[in-house]
Specification:
By secondary structure, the protein is α+β, with helices and mostly antiparallel strands. It is 61% helix and 7% strand. It has 35 helices and eleven strands.
C-alpha cells in the first residue's frame, strides 16, 4: 500500500475512532469512499475491537514487535495507564521510576495497528515522531507542552516523553467553568500567544482544535500534539524535505488551503484559531461535515460561509438561560473578528496569531477593532469565482429581470411611472443581493437560493403589475428549471405565462418565450406528449405572427428535435434538427447554439444507424465546442457521452468506457456538486465497466449513481430508474443477487410512475431481470418472484 493511500486510511480511521464503538462500522459505510480505503479502515476497526484493553493483557500484533504494556518501563519511566489513542499514536500516563524524584509524564508511541504498515509508510511515521521531538525541543513557552525526553523501545518503536498536562479540552473547560464571553476571549488570547511562539520558530501546527488545547488546574491552556506540524523556510513555504505524504488533519478545523492540500503558511493556523474561537463563542462549529464525502467536505470548507455567531448560538446545545446570556454578549465586532480570522482568502486574514490576539485585546478594551467587513465588490467577485455555474444560471435570471425593467421603462406612458417602475425592480434586485450577503442575512445563500427566496415576495411587491412580474417570474423560473427545481419552476412559469398573455397578448415574443419554458418543464416532468403539444403551439404562434426571424424560432425547432431524441424517435428528430439548422437566421459557426445543433443532429444520425455521418458531426461539434470552451461545458460532456455510445455500437467497448469517464470528469468539473447529469454519467461508467467485467468500478460507480439519483430526481424519471437497473447489473456481477432483486424492484416502481418511460430503459430493465432469473445460484423462491416481476414489468407502457 502506498504512503498516500495509507495516509487516507489513517485519517478516516482517526475519524471513525471519534464515533461510538458500536456505530463505527455503520458510520464508515455511510461515507462515500474508495473501496480500497473503506475496506482497509473496516479491517482496522475490526482489529481495534479485538484488542480491547491491550494494555492489560498480551495481544499479538502481527509484525509489530513487542508493544509496551502497563507496568513496563521505557527508560526511566513506568507506564501507568492509557490516556488517549488517535489514528497514529497511543499516549500513556507514566511516572518517574528511578526514584531520583517524583514526576508524572505523558509518553506517546506509534499506534500498534500501524506498525505492520508498508515500509515506506512506517518510515513516514517514524520521521513524524522525530520531527515532533525536534520541533517541541525548540519551543519554551508556558502555553506549549514541553518535550522532556525521547527514545525507542527494544523493538524499535519510537516514543516521546512530554510534559503531562492534567487538564480538559479548551471548549469543555470554558463550559464547565461557565465562563462568559470576556473570560473566554482572555483565555483564548493565551492560546494565540502559544501559537505565535511556534510561528516565531517557523513552525505551523496544522491541527489546532480544542482537543489539542488542554487547560490545566492552574487555568493555563497548553498546546499539545505537534505530530503533524511542519517547519517553514525563510521564504514562508515548507522547508525542503519537510512535507510528506502524511497529510492527516481534522477537516472541521482545517483551512481551505489545507483541505485542498496546497502549500501552507502560518495563515492556516490563524484560520484554525478562528474556527476554535467561533466554537468557544457560539457553542457549535461553523460547519457540519458529518456524513460528507471528502470532496463534499472540501466544498463546504472552501465555499460555504458560516452563520453569524448570534444565529449559531440559537442552534447550539445549551440551556435557554445560557443561550440568552451568550446572545446578549455577542455583537457585530466579534462577528467581524471571527470572519477575518476565517477568511477563505488567506491574504485577508490576520497576518499573525499575535495580530489576532491584539485585535481581541482591542475589543476587550472597548477600542475600535481592525476587522472590517469586505467590500461588496470583493465579496461579489469571490462569490462568482466559487459558484461559476450557479452564478451563470442565476445571472441569466437577473439579466432577464434587468431587461424586464428596461422594457417596462420604455413602454411606460409617463416619465413618473417609468421612474417608479425602475425603482420597484431595482429594490427587488437589491433585496436579492442582500439575501446572498452573509453580513446582512447571518449566513451566505447562493445567488440561486436568494432568487428562490425572493420569488415568494413577487405577488405582494408587484400586485396589479403583470407587465413587470411576468418577466421577473420568467427569469427566476428558468433559473429554477436549469437547477432541476421542477415544481418551483412550473409554478413561476405558469403564472408568468398567464400574466404575460394578460399584459402583452398571446403572440407577443415575451409570452412565447415563457411558453417555450413551460414546454421545457413538461419535458422534465416526463410529460412528453404535453411537452410536444406545447412546443408545437409555440411554433404555430410564431409562424402565425410572422416572427420566424426571431432566435426563439430556431430554439423551439431544436427543442422539438431534442424531445424526439429523448423519445428515441430518431427520424422525427433528424427532420426537426435539419429544419432548424437550415433556417436563414440560424446561428453560424463558431457559436454554442450551432455546435449544440450539430451534436444533436449527430445523435439523430447515430440513432438512424448512419454511423459515418454521426461520427463526422460529433467531431465537428466537439472541435467547435473546444474552440469556444477550452475548459469544458455541459454540452461537451453530453457530446462525449454520445460519442461513447457510438464507440460501443461500433464494438470498441474500451474506447467507450474511456469516453464515458471523460464525460463524467467534465460533468463533475462544470456542475461542481450533485446534479442529474453527474448521476447519469456515473451509471454510464458503471454499466460499461460491468460489461468489461470490472466488478469494483462497476459497483462503486453504480452505488454513487443511485445515491445521487435518489437525491436529485424529485420527479419520476426514466434516468432515475436506469441508475437502479445499473446497480442491479453490478450487484449480479459481484454475486449479490438479493440486493440486485431489490434494486430491480425499485427501478420498476420508479418506471411505473413515469407517464412515458423511455423505451430503451424499459428494455434494459427486462434484460436485467432476465439475467437475474438465469443465474443458477438464485434460490427457488427468488427465481419465482423474479420471473413474475419480469413478466409484469412496465413493458405494457411501450
Amino acid at each position: 500500500m502506498s504512503p498516500s493511500l495509507e495516509a487516507q486510511v489513517l485519517q478516516w480511521f482517526d475519524l471513525a475512532l471519534e464515533q461510538p464503538a458500536s456505530e463505527r462500522g455503520a458510520w464508515l459505510v455511510a461515507q462515500v469512499l474508495p473501496e480500497a480505503v473503506s475496506e482497509r479502515v473496516l479491517r482496522l476497526i475490526d482489529a481495534e475491537a479485538t484488542l480491547g484493553d491491550f494494555l492489560a493483557e498480551v495481544v499479538e500484533v502481527p509484525n509489530s514487535g513487542d508493544f509496551p504494556r502497563v507496568g513496563e518501563r521505557l527508560g526511566s519511566y513506568e507506564l501507568v495507564r492509557q490516556l488517549d489513542a488517535g489514528g497514529m499514536g497511543v499516549v500513556f500516563l507514566a511516572r518517574r521510576a528511578d526514584e531520583i524524584y517524583e514526576q508524572q509524564v505523558a509518553i506517546k508511541l506509534i499506534r500498534p495497528l500501524h506498525l505492520s504498515a508498508a515500509p515506506a509508510f512506517r518510515r513516514e511515521l517514524v520521521a513524524r515522531f522525530e520531527t515532533e521531538r525536534v520541533l517541541l525541543a525548540r519551543l519554551s513557552h508556558p502555553n506549549v507542552a514541553r518535550i522532556l525526553d525521547g527514545g525507542s523501545t527494544a523493538a524499535g518503536i519510537p516514543y516521546l516523553v512530554m510534559e503531562f498536562v492534567d487538564g480538559v479540552a479548551l471548549n469543555k473547560y470554558c463550559d464547565a467553568q461557565a465562563l462568559d464571553v470576556g473570560e473566554r476571549l482572555r483565555l483564548f488570547r493565551k492560546v494565540c500567544d502559544g501559537v505565535q511562539e511556534a510561528h516565531r520558530h517557523l513552525i505551523v501546527h496544522r491541527d489546532l482544535k480544542p482537543e489539542n488545547i488542554l487547560v490545566g488546574a492552574d487555568g493555563e491552556p497548553r498546546l499539545l500534539d505537534f505530530g503533524i506540524a511542519r517547519t517553514l523556510d525563510q521564504a514562508g513555504g515548507f522547508a525542503s524535505g519537510a512535507a510528506t505524504a502524511l497529510t492527516a488533519m481534522t477537516p472541521a478545523y482545517a483551512s481551505p488551503e489545507q483541505v485542498r492540500h496546497e502549500p501552507l503558511t502560518t495563515s492556516s493556523d490563524v484560520y484554525s484559531l478562528g474556527v476554535v474561537l467561533y466554537q468557544l463563542l457560539s457553542g457549535t462549529r461553523p460547519y457540519s461535515l458529518e456524513g460528507l464525502s471528502p470532496a463534499q467536505a472540501e466544498r463546504r470548507v472552501c465555499e460555504a460561509e458560516p452563520a453569524s455567531l448570534r444565529k449559531a448560538v440559537q442552534q447550539a446545545e445549551m440551556s435557554d438561560d445560557a443561550r440568552r446570556r451568550r446572545h446578549a454578549q455577542l455583537d457585530t465586532d466579534l462577528d467581524r473578528i471571527v470572519c477575518k480570522a476565517m477568511h477563505k482568502d488567506g491574504s485577508r486574514r490576520y497576518a499573525s496569531a499575535q495580530e489576532f490576539a491584539a485585535d481581541l485585546q482591542r475589543y476587550l478594551d472597548g477600542q475600535p477593532v481592525l476587522a472590517h467587513p469586505d467590500s461588496r465588490t470583493y465579496r461579489a467577485a469571490k462569490f462568482i469565482g466559487r459558484h461559476r455555474l450557479g452564478s451563470a444560471a442565476a445571472a441569466l435570471a437577473i439579466a432577464a429581470i434587468v431587461a424586464a425593467a428596461g422594457v417596462a421603462v420604455w413602454q411606460a406612458h409617463a416619465a413618473r411611472r417609468s421612474a417608479d417602475d425602475m425603482r420597484q425592480v431595482n429594490a427587488f434586485l437589491l433585496d436579492v443581493l442582500k439575501l446572498s450577503d452573509p453580513f446582512a442575512s447571518g449566513s451566505e445563500l447562493t445567488l440561486s437560493q436568494a432568487l428562490d427566496s425572493a420569488a415568494q415576495t413577487i405577488d405582494k411587491r408587484f400586485s396589479g403589475r403583470p407587465d413587470l412580474s411576468a418577466d421577473i417570474r420568467f427569469g427566476i423560473g428558468y433559473s429554477m428549471l436549469s437547477r432541476n427545481r421542477i415544481e418551483a419552476a412550473e409554478k413561476q412559469l405558469s403564472i408568468a405565462l398567464a400574466e404575460s398573455e394578460s399584459a402583452f397578448g398571446k403572440n407577443d415574443i415575451r409570452t412565447l418565450r415563457i411558453l417555450e419554458g413551460v414546454a421545457g418543464v413538461r419535458q422534465e416532468q416526463g410529460r412528453m406528449g404535453d411537452a410536444e403539444a406545447t412546443f408545437k403551439e409555440a411554433i404555430a404562434r410564431i409562424e402565425a405572427s410572422g416572427q420566424q426571424r426571431d432566435p426563439l424560432y430556431f430554439l423551439v425547432l431544436g427543442n422539438l428535435g431534442n424531445l424526439a431524441l429523448v423519445r428515441e424517435d430518431y427520424r422525427t428528430a433528424d427532420d426537426f434538427l435539419r429544419q432548424a439548422i437550415a433556417l436563414p437566421d440560424a446561428p453560424k459557426a463558431p457559436s454554442p447554439d450551432h455546435a449544440a445543433a450539430l451534436s444533436n443532429l449527430a445523435q439523430a444520425a447515430h440513432g438512424l444507424l448512419d454511423y459515418q455521418r454521426a461520427d463526422r458531426l460529433y467531431r465537428e461539434s466537439q472541435a467547435e465546442f473546444a474552440q469556444l470552451f477550452p475548459e469544458g461545458n455541459p454540452d461537451q460532456a453530453i457530446l462525449l457521452n454520445n460519442r461513447a455510445v457510438l464507440a460501443d455500437d461500433r464494438g470498441d467497448k474500451r474506447e467507450s468506457l474511456a469516453l464515458h469517464r471523460q464525460s463524467l470528469a467534465m460533468r463533475r468539473k462544470v456542475f461542481g456538486g450533485e446534479h442529474p447529469m453527474i448521476a447519469v454519467a456515473l451509471y454510464n461508467v458503471a454499466r460499461k465497466a460491468a460489461e468489461l467485467g470490472d466488478k469494483s468500478i462497476a459497483l462503486d460507480s453504480a452505488r454513487e449513481a443511485t445515491q445521487m439519483a435518489d437525491r436529485v430526481f424529485t420527479e419520476p424519471n426514466s434516468r432515475h430508474a436506469s441508475a437502479h437497473i445499473t446497480l442491479a447489473q453490478a450487484q449480479i456481477l459481484n454475486g449479490d443477487l438479493a440486493a440486485a432483486a431489490n434494486a430491480l424492484k425499485r427501478a420498476r416502481e420508479i418506471l411505473a410512475a413515469v407517464p412515458e418511460p423511455t423505451p430503451s430503459v424499459v428494455e434494459y430493465l427486462e434484460k436485467t431481470y432476465a439475467r437475474l432469473c438465469a443465474v443458477s445460484a438464485l434460490p427457488a423462491s427468488a427465481v419465482t418472484e423474479c420471473t413474475a416481476e419480469a413478466g409484469t414489468s412496465v413493458a405494457t407502457k411501450k
